[in-house]
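Anyone up for a design puzzle?
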């Protein structure tokens, strides 16, 4: 059996060791384990493990290196911070902040939907974290409920920079990435698009999902989903306040040049 499947594996960092425990997350290219930093103080960390077999794929390896480069730039209360990266037997162990309260998707599912007051607090923190990310000329490009984590005090942490990109002064990119139901209309166009503005669109989907408990789009087929997104076809339930509905509509504006900025979104009447 592979060594990474053995419970309580230990990896040695530059100034501390980490005891790996149970799996707390699993993706296509990596596994996340709860870990304990030793010696005292015994701090809990999340350890993202990317195995050597996975990194033999050139495209995945280059994407991984790019993710690490971007993640190292991050130092903000609303963004996951990396503590240390360890290379052991060509496996990479990325030690980062542990968020014990889970992710926003699970939180919304547990509560069916969130009250607007709770959603305001979360959305304001998302905007603040994203504003910081953009200040570094980075577009996240995969903002979604699953990539918003909660720390012990239910403060949010934006995570997973696997699809992120450092942009030039025009903020343009042309790769249609991300999770389809969070993807902006311009991403489906095949043309270059503003990476910052497409992140703002994703915020609109997140806000809609928080206050309604479901996605704004009803189609499951990717082509039909793209058509629905391109037309901006969604309905806001009557129980949603006019102020919240207005902010959602400004975030989910089809024309990216008319879409609200983060700065203006934070000043929106819904937050007052």
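Challenge accepted. My sequence:
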């Amino acid at each position: 059996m592979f060594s990474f499947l053995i419970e309580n594996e230990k990896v040695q960092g530059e100034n501390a060791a980490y005891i790996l425990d149970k799996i707390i997350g699993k993706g296509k290219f990596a596994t996340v384990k709860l870990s304990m930093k030793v010696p005292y103080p015994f701090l809990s960390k999340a350890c993202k493990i990317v195995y050597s077999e996975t990194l033999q794929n050139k495209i995945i390896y280059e994407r991984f290196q790019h993710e690490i480069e971007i993640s190292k730039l991050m130092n903000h209360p609303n963004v996951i911070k990396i503590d240390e990266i360890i290379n052991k037997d060509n496996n990479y162990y990325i030690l980062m902040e542990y968020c014990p309260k889970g992710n926003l998707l699970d939180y919304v599912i547990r509560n069916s939907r969130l009250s607007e007051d709770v959603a305001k607090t979360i959305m304001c923190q998302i905007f603040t974290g994203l504003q910081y990310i953009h200040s570094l000329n980075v577009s996240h490009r995969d903002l979604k409920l699953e990539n918003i984590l909660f720390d012990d005090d239910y403060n949010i942490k934006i995570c997973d920079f696997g699809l992120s990109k450092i942009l030039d002064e025009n903020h343009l990119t042309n790769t249609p990435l991300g999770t389809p139901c969070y993807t902006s209309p311009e991403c489906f166009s095949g043309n270059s698009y503003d990476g910052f503005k497409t992140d703002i669109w994703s915020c609109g989907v997140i806000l809609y999902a928080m206050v309604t408990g479901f996605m704004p789009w009803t189609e499951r087929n990717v082509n039909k989903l793209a058509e629905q997104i391109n037309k901006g076809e969604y309905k806001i339930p009557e129980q949603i306040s006019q102020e919240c509905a207005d902010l959602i509509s400004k975030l989910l504006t089809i024309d990216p040049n008319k879409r609200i900025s983060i700065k203006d979104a934070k000043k929106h009447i819904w937050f007052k």
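A detail worth pointing out: The first strand starts at residue 10 and ends at 12.
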